[in-house]
Amino acid sequence: MNIGTVAGNSGVSAKMIRYYEETGLIPHTRRSDSGYRKYDQTDVHTLRFIRRARDLGFSMERIRELLKLWQDRGRPSREVKAIALNHVAELDADIAKLISLRNAVSHLAGLCHGDDHPECPILDGLSGEVAG
Amino acid sequence: MNIGTVAGNSGVSAKMIRYYEETGLIPHTRRSDSGYRKYDQTDVHTLRFIRRARDLGFSMERIRELLKLWQDRGRPSREVKAIALNHVAELDADIAKLISLRNAVSHLAGLCHGDDHPECPILDGLSGEVAG
DNA sequence: TATAAACCTTCCCATCATGGCAAGGTCAAG
DNA sequence: CTTGACCTTGCCATGATGGGAAGGTTTATA
């Protein structure tokens, strides 16, 4: 298979497949006489694995670890679970931060009349004025 | 005031102040004979405004709009509120997405024993196997 | 068979907001 | 006058991705 076919079959763009190869996430693949990258079904499986992990928000570094464990038949599932739980914790932190922002902005917006007049507690808040 | 003082007083790094100037978020400031950027208290106010907006997660493009409205004494607060509510909507979307990821990862993690054995529903899920 | 379309290659650039570093000029205090 | 703190510009890096150019290859079609 050429890279375009693998891209279509895996859901990972050709651009990213080359990038993953370059950064060592996947090994260098063999080339045709003319220099085209050649792939087989195993590569498609690996790339699908990567894509699903990306879809779940795992960083490339995490995916690197997950791939290693995936390919290690003797891995303890404990290590995989640790990575996943760590990711959940990071997501929780991100979510908490966004919610905090959201509430702050929403609060300010709630104070603003949103009419033709220039008075605006949002701008006042941003400029540091505590209250009218 | 030199840039370092303004940075300290505004909470915006000198690096970012130069960047904001370069990208037009703030105007070019006057220079001393030796080429040093010179600022006054008004600049500190503006930079504090920018920093607070950044802290609330507004993008530079949004801040550009907010700054323009802030400096327009005849603005209708409606426009400010619209930007804020739009930002809230974007934050809500981001939050929803992260929560969805979080739940998916957490679900997979919950299926995994996390012990010495290699069986791992997390890896199975990533590799596309529906179930054992 | 000739040619065009579709594909592949590498290389460079851009994102977004931020930091780091380096080489060199300036200023203030000792 | 030296030292150290500060300023300047400029380049590089981030993380994961896309865009595009310039040029070689393969395949399909006229």
Main structural class of chain A: mainly alpha
Number of helices of chain A: 6
The best one-word shape of chain A is elongated
Largest interface: A-B, 52 and 52 residues
- The number of E-state strands of chain A comes to 0
Low-pLDDT ranges of chain A = none
> H/E order of the elements of chain A?
HHHHHH
- Can you give the helix content of chain A as a percent range? 55-70%
Estimated radius of gyration of chain A: 24 Å
Straight-line N-to-C gap of chain A: 67 Å
Task: Give a nutshell description of this structure.
The structure is a homodimer of 132-residue chains. With 132 residues, chain A is an all-alpha fold.
What does this structure look like?
- Two copies of one chain form a homodimer.
- Chain A contains six helices and no strands.
- By secondary structure, chain A is an all-alpha fold.
- Chains A and B meet through helix 3, helix 4, helix 5 and helix 6 of A and helix 3, helix 4, helix 5 and helix 6 of B.
- Chain A binds a DNA duplex (30 and 30 nucleotides) through helix 2.
Write the layout of secondary structure elements.
The structure is a homodimer of 132-residue chains.
Chain A: H1 3-10, H2 14-22, H3 41-55, H4 60-70, H5 77-111, H6 121-127
The structure holds a DNA duplex (30 and 30 nucleotides).
Features:
homodimer; 132 residues; 0% strand; elongated; DNA-binding
